[in-house]
Amino acid sequence: MRRLLINAALTLGCTVLVQTPAVAGPVEVARLYLRGSASVRQDLPKAFKLFRQAANAGDPQGAYYLGLMYRNGMAVARDATAAAHWLRFAADRDLPAAMYQLAQLYLAGEGVRRDEITARRWIEKAAELDYPEAVMAMAIGLRDGSMGFDRNEALSELQMKFANQALQRRAPGM
Asked: Are both 96 and 136 inside the same structural domain?
């Protein structure tokens, strides 16, 4: 419809000013409310509601942020079990940040049974997707011989260099 109106106006020789609103999905809007900005006041309950709606609709990003809000008690009581549920939902849909956060829950035994081997599997999957924090966690596991990794200082150093390079390339605010 907008295109027809613009074409008609151009045919008639009219000047047309079109203001195209930025199209943002519910997760992007929720992130604005989560962080706040110069134009949007931080509103954690609103962010939580939007993330929950997105997660319930099957959005892995919404599930990831919802899991973080449950884990950190943001606009809701801390609930490690709910955090693990939503982070697993996002991790199962190949979101490396969720894989890494879920691994941290397994390492700490928060909301799930403590399990270093399961944590290692999630860290390895996230590292395969080049998630820098997961690569760094692997490097630490290799250095210390933890999470079921065999101690390997040479490989640990190599992984640490890769993780540092990836972190330096990461866009600000990620």
From this structure: no
For residue 47, give every residue at least 6 positions away whose Cβ sits within 8 Å of its Cβ, in sequence order, or none.
30, 31, 33, 34, 65, 69, 74, 75
Same domain, 43 and 86: yes
Question: Rg for the chain (alpha carbons), in Å?
Answer: 21
Q: One digit per residue, pLDDT tens: the chain, 174 residues?
A: 333 323 333 333 434 333 333 557 999 999 999 999 999 999 999 999 999 999 999 999 999 999 999 999 999 999 999 999 999 999 999 999 999 999 999 999 999 999 999 999 999 999 999 899 999 999 999 999 988 889 999 989 988 888 888 788 775 555
Question: Against a cut of 0.85, is the pTM above it?
Answer: no
Phi then psi dihedrals of residue 131, to 5 deg: -80, 115
Which amino acid is present at 100?
Y
> Residue 3, Cβ neighbours under 10 Å: how many?
8
Residues 27 and 111 in one domain: yes
- Rounded-to-integer distance, Cα 102 and Cα 137, Å: 13
